Amino acid sequence: MTAATRRHATQIKLVARPQGHPKPGDFAIASAPIPVPGEGEILVETTYLSLDPALRPRMNEVSAYAGAIPLHSTIPSPALGVVLESRSPLHKPGDHVSGMFGWQSHATVQGSEARRIDPERAVLPRWLSLLGLSSFTAYVGLVELGRPKPGETVVVSAAAGATGAAVGQIAKILGARAVGIAGGVAKCRGVVDVYGFDACVDYKAADFLKQLDAACPDGIDVDFENVGGDILRAVYDRMNQDGRVIVCGLVSEYNIDGGFPPGPSLWPTVYKSLRIEGFRASRYFDRVPEFIDKALEWSQAGLFTHREHITEGIENAPQAFVDMLVGRHFGKAMVRI
Prior knowledge:
Layout: E1 8-14, E2 27-33, E3 41-50, H1 55-58, E4 73-74, E5 79-86, E6 96-99, E7 106-110, E8 115-116, H2 133-146, E9 153-157, H3 162-173, E10 177-182, H4 185-193, E11 199-202, H5 208-215, E12 220-225, H6 229-236, E13 239-247, H7 267-271, E14 275-278, H8 288-300, E15 308-312, H9 317-325, E16 332-336
Helix pairs in contact: 2-3
């Protein structure tokens, strides 16, 4: 349905600050007139929208991460879409684009804020999974910051998620061992069988620490941290000399309203010469073309793959987001509009 036949845009808005885990009732479906693009802008009809854990801390009243989402505003999010109208020399109607279009059926953005994508190079969902922000985050975090050497051991938490799955595969491509941490036997099996990790440890198991020791007999050289909490403490205790702890996210702490759990003792940072570094992928956006070329090259060689968990219908985005945060999805979570 085009803007000519669809008179209103559907939007998902944040209407309440989540108390602990978000609930579908924290969101509301709204309708608004389809916007008219201004000078230099494009009107985009959204086709797929991304569901990302990093949205959760932005739903708090105060967020140092990327700014709090105002109440009664549309949820911001990476998305894919088709240009319906253009007042920008950078795009024409019919172009497929990606950008921060949010949880809505139609959006207007500056032409410079949308990147043209080519469905001939990869089918549309892959531009949010294999070639999307999660995989790009894995790429720059591991290649630029983690820098694993052949034979080293890379451990990644939330290994069944979009970013974690990419981290392990890139580690293998670079010649390192990849050990994942995930929740449940089925997810761990998928991490090994689908994504090719050398091992995956179930953090829900009673013998989690024993499993981690068995999977990392020579210690851990790079920790790509997505979870924090008890998992970070367990991994930190097993870091090798000159190890690197790359902090991408702390999903275990996103739903805590104050009173954060204590982190690991930083004393090993001194006597093991560890490096701890956090990052945001947006700092490296100039390397997106480089990443896309590499990812497609690896994919064509059978070295890099991804799975998508696609929910149908924008009205189901809130429940899908809640399910993603509690680990009910395997692979990159997204919604097809």
